[in-house]
Amino acid sequence: MYSHDPRVKKCEEVPVEFPPQYQPGQPGLEYLMIPRPVSDLPGKVGSGKLQNKVAIITGGDSGIGRAIAYLFAREGADIVVVYLNEHTDALETQERIRQIGRSCLTIAGDIGDEEFCRGAVETTLSRFGRVDILINNAGEMIYEEDITNLTSEQLLRIFQTNVFSCFYFTKALLPYLQPGSAIINTSSLAADKGYPAMASYSATKGAISALTRSLAVTLADRGIRVNAVAPGRTWTPLIPSSFPPEFYMFYGSLNNPGPIKRTAQPYEIAPIYLYLASEESRYVIGQTIHVNGGEYMGL
């Protein structure tokens, strides 16, 4: 089933129903999802907002990260996709970026490991000689209805992936970022709205929002802008790899809260990252911009 939302152009078919499906490992594989997330729209043309810039995107192989990668490439950027082990998704993303006409470097590894993050930055600098934009987007999610079942190992792991990696990449890149550079973190609606069975994930996203504000103040004098994006419900590989099949009733159009009443597709989230990465947002720092279809904030 596809959306009949009048705000969506007829050529932009947006799935609104998602059949139950499960993937046993995180962060999940996009090529196995039914329907596939919509990360790119044919016929879109960029305007050079990021011409010849270099962007590192963690989790850039799929989901929101892939949509960001495609949009940034259309705007003239070369892309570094950092991912865990989703090699098929990463190769697909790389090939699409090359078709768009930009270079794409893929780097596989665990962003919860500081040495890997440092090495990824060094590899990027060796290939491109510069980095202008850092997108801290990759994340994990734990669905746990009973918090007493959450182990200390699980809690440490989700913070390493979602929060520590932001520190690691920022720390490794700071000596090389120039005035005008941008760091954009991915928070979540979950940081502000309580969700059952998502306490650990919500905690990491709240930490990211706070980190964003602090880094923005710290780095403003250096001309480095730090902001965050907080998506609402979005169809990405994290969903089938995190939630039990019965959870999908909450992703369908009939059960989705908010005025728009449907789940977002990745391509609808990516333009906010482009705004924050471009010169158009040069007076914006320390902000977390919510993109959630009006699900929260009193709408």
TrEMBL record:
SUPFAM superfamilies given in the database record: NAD(P)-binding Rossmann-fold domains (SSF51735)
EC identifiers of the protein: 1.-.-.-
Enzyme class: oxidoreductase
PROSITE patterns (alphabetical): ADH_SHORT (PS00061)
Record keywords, A-Z: Oxidoreductase
One Pfam family hit: adh_short_C2
Example GO molecular function: oxidoreductase activity
Family: Belongs to the short-chain dehydrogenases/reductases (SDR) family.
PANTHER family hit by this protein: NADPH-DEPENDENT ALDEHYDE REDUCTASE 1, CHLOROPLASTIC, NADPH-DEPENDENT ALDEHYDE REDUCTASE-LIKE PROTEIN, CHLOROPLASTIC-RELATED
Name assigned to this protein: General stress protein 39
